[in-house]
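[SOLVED] Need 3D model of a three-part complex

Original post:
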Amino acid sequence: MNQTESHTGDPRFFQRRGPFALCKVVKQLGLEIDLDTEHAQKNFIGVAPLHSAGPNEISFLDNRRYIDLLKETRAGAVIVAKAFADKVPEHSVALISKDPYQSWACVAQFFHPAAPSTGKIHPSAVISENAIIGNNVEISALAVIGDKVKIGDGCIIASHAVIETGVEIGANCRIGAHVTISHALLGERVVLYPGVRIGQDGFGFAVTPEGFETVPQLGRVILEDGVEIGSNTTIDRGSMKDTIIGAGSRIDNLVQIGHNVQMGRCCIVVSQAGISGSTTLEDFVTIAAQAGLIGHIHIGKKARVGAQCGVMSDVEAGSDVIGSPAMPFKEFFRNVATLRKLSRKS
Amino acid sequence: MNQTESHTGDPRFFQRRGPFALCKVVKQLGLEIDLDTEHAQKNFIGVAPLHSAGPNEISFLDNRRYIDLLKETRAGAVIVAKAFADKVPEHSVALISKDPYQSWACVAQFFHPAAPSTGKIHPSAVISENAIIGNNVEISALAVIGDKVKIGDGCIIASHAVIETGVEIGANCRIGAHVTISHALLGERVVLYPGVRIGQDGFGFAVTPEGFETVPQLGRVILEDGVEIGSNTTIDRGSMKDTIIGAGSRIDNLVQIGHNVQMGRCCIVVSQAGISGSTTLEDFVTIAAQAGLIGHIHIGKKARVGAQCGVMSDVEAGSDVIGSPAMPFKEFFRNVATLRKLSRKS
Amino acid sequence: MNQTESHTGDPRFFQRRGPFALCKVVKQLGLEIDLDTEHAQKNFIGVAPLHSAGPNEISFLDNRRYIDLLKETRAGAVIVAKAFADKVPEHSVALISKDPYQSWACVAQFFHPAAPSTGKIHPSAVISENAIIGNNVEISALAVIGDKVKIGDGCIIASHAVIETGVEIGANCRIGAHVTISHALLGERVVLYPGVRIGQDGFGFAVTPEGFETVPQLGRVILEDGVEIGSNTTIDRGSMKDTIIGAGSRIDNLVQIGHNVQMGRCCIVVSQAGISGSTTLEDFVTIAAQAGLIGHIHIGKKARVGAQCGVMSDVEAGSDVIGSPAMPFKEFFRNVATLRKLSRKS
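Solution:
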C-alpha cells in the first residue's frame, strides 16, 4: 500500500465542482477584495492545506501555530486574517477575511457541496406500508422504517438505519448507517452519524430488597432543527418529560446524554463527555471532551466546562470551569502551581 | 415543529392500559391506605410529573429538590413519603409509601406494561436452519440468527441484531436493534439495549521485538438472569476463563468491561465507566459514571466508587472511594479544601 | 442456567486442533528444552489457566500475583520464566521461556488457530456490481458493499458490515459485524471489531453569529497493515489531510480518534481514551485507558501516557506522564503524598 501522500478531496470519495475563477470564489465568500484582472480570472480547481496546496488551489491560515507553513506555501491563494496578510508569499493572493475559518468552510463547501438526496429507495429496504415518506427521500440498502414513521422531504437514510414505530423526521435530515431511532421527534436538517442511538430507555430503576425494579421511561427525545450528533453517541429518552437537544447544537462522538436532559440552542458537547439525567444546559454552553456532569444541575448561558472536568453543582452563566470537582480556570491552575511548589519543598 | 410541550406516555410511542379506579391502583401498589368512597372510585388515566399532571393523573415526589412543584401540582393523586404528606395540595390524594420511587415504578408499569413478544418472525430475518427457536419468540426485520443458536421462549429480538454461532439465550430476554452477541450464554430476562457488543475478543497481545502477537481469547461471556446492559456498551469475552456479569446487575451506556471481569449480583455500573481485565466485583458494588478500574484488583461487597474515580488497588467492602487515585470520600474532600486554603495563602 | 464452571475453548464457540505430542508443541514454540522420552510423547489436548487445567492441558504463569495457583495446578505442563521453574509441581513439565506470555500466545494459537475465510458469499449480502472482490473472500449475511469498493484476497466481512463507496481493503482483513467504513484505505491484515466507525466527518465547524457553519471534511482515514481496532471505537476522517493509524497499532474499545490524527507504528491505545484532532503520536506510544489528549500536540516515541491522564501539551520521547494536567509519574505521586500529609496537619 502506497498511501503516505495525504490527499484533500480524493475523487474516489468526494465530488467536486469547478474550476472557478477567483473573482467568483471571492464573491461567494462575500469578501470585499479588489483583485487585479489577472488574478480575478485565474481558475482554481479546489482547496488544500498550506503544505500541499498547488498554484491552482486555495488554502487558509487560522491557527498561528502553523505560520511557518504559510511562508512556504505554494497555494495560489490563501485566506488569512489582516494581521497575517504580509506573511503571504508573493506568488499567492491574500484573501483577507474577518473570520478565515468561516470563509474556509464556505469555500470548501463551494467546491465540495454535500451530495443531495438521490431520491432513490433501495429495493432491499424494509418499509412499513403505514410509513409516510416525503418527496425526494433517499433510503439505502437494508434500512428499516417502522409503522407510522414520518420522513420529511429530501431526507437521506443510510444503509442499515432502523427507524422505529411512530418516529417523525423533518425535512432534509441525514441519518447515518446503523443509526437506531425510537420514541423521538426530529426537526429539519438534523444530521446523525453512524451508530448513534436515540430514544432508548434511560437508566432508571428503584432499589428494592429483592433487586432493582425498572421504572418505565415514558418520555421522548426531541432533536430540534439543525442538531448534529456524532458516531456512537447515545441519547436516552426522558423518564416522564422529554430529553431535548436545542436547535443547532453539535454533539461529538461517544457522548452520553441521560434522560430528561434539557439542552439549549447552539451548545457544543465534545467527544466522550457525559451529561447525567435531568441536568439542564442553557444556550451556547460548551462541554469539552471527557467532562462529566452529575444529574439535576443547571449550567448557565455561555458557560464553558473544560476537558475531563467533573461538575457536581450548578455553573453560573458565562463562567469557565475545569478540574474534578469543577472550579474556575484560574483557581485550578493556581492549585496546580501551589501543589507543585509545596511538593518540591517537602 | 411544535413540540415544546413535554409529554408523558405519547400514544405514538407508548401503549396504555386503564383507566383504573384509584382503589385498584392502591391495591396494585400494595399500599395500606384508607380511601374515602369518592376517592376510591375516581378513575385515573395515567401518570405524569408534578408540573404537568392533570386531575386524573398520578404523580410522585422522591427528590426533596422538587418540593416546590408538589405545592403547585394539579395531579389528582401523588405518591409521597410520610414526611411530605402535609405538603400535598387539598385537591390531590396523598398516596403515602415507604419507598415512593419503587411505588412509582410499580404504578407506571401498571399503566404502561412492557409490550410482550408478538411471536412473529419477520420474513427478512436470516435464521440458520440449525438454530433452535423457542415458543412465542419475536424476531424483527433483518436480524441474523447463526448456526446452533438457542433462543428461549418469549424472547424479543429487534431489527438487525446479530446472534453468532452457538450463542444461547434464556427465556424472556429482549435483544435490542443492532446488538452483536458472540461466544456468550445469557440467562433469563436479560435486556440488551441497541448497539451493545457482547463476546468479542479481549485486548490481549504479547509485545515482541517484531510487534504485537495476538493472544487467542478462549473464554466466554456469561450474562446471568435479569442483567440489563445499556446502549453501545462493550463486554469482551474472557481470555481463558469467562467474563461474568452477575444476576440482576445493571450496566449503563458506553461502559467498557474487559476480559475475565467477574461481577457479582446486583452491581450498578454507570455510563462511560470502564473495568479493566481480570478485576472482580463482589455483590452490590456501585461504580459511578466515568470511573476507571485497573486490572487484576478486587472490589468488596457494597463498595461504592465515585464518578471519575481512578481505582488502582483493591477497595474494601462497604467503603466509599473517589478521586484519581482513589481515596475515601472524606479524605478527597479534605484534600480539596486544604489545597484551596493553601493556594489562597500563597 | 448452570454455567458457573468457567470454560476454556468451549467447543460451541471455538475450533480446536490436536491432540499434539509435547515435543511437537515445544518445537512450535521454538523453545530449546530437553524433554525425556516419556514427556516428549505425551499428548496434550489444549490450553487452560492454572486453576482449571488438567493433566493433558498446558498452562502458563506470567504474573507473579498468581504464583500460589502455580503451586497447586494440575496442569501437565506450564510455561514459565526460569525464575519460577522450581515452583512448578513435580507432576508438571516446566516449559521455560524467556517470554512466557508470547509463548502462551503461540501455543494457544497452535491449538486454536483463527478460522480462515470460508470463501462463501451469503446470498442476502448487497454487493454493488462495480465492487471488485478478491479471491477467497467471505461475506456474511446482509453485509453491504458499495460502488467501486475493492476487497483483497482472503478477507472476512461479517454480517451487517457496511463498506461505503470507493473504500479499499487489503488482503486478509477481518471486518466485524455492524462495522461502518467510508472514505478509507485499509492495508493488509487489518482487524476491525463489531461496531467500529471509520471515516465519518470530523467535528469541524466555524462559529458564526447565526450558529455553526460546517467545515467539509475532505481527508481520508488510512489504516496501515496489521492495525486492530476495538468495538464501538470511532475514527474520524481528516479535514484536509488524512487521519493515519500506523502499522501494527492496537486500539481498544470505545476509543475516540479525531480528524487528522497521525499515529505511528505499534502504538497502543487502551479503552475509552480520546485523541483530539491534529495530534501526532510517534512510534511505540502507549495511551492508557480513559486518557485524553488535546489537539495539535506531539507525543514522542515510546512515551507512555497513564490512565485518565489529561495531556495539554507535547510529551517528550520516552517519558511517562500521568495526572490531569499531565506530569511525570514521580511528580504526580509526590504531589499525592504531599497533599495527603498537608491535609492531615490542617
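Edit: Chain B touches chain C through 69 residues (CB under 8 Å).
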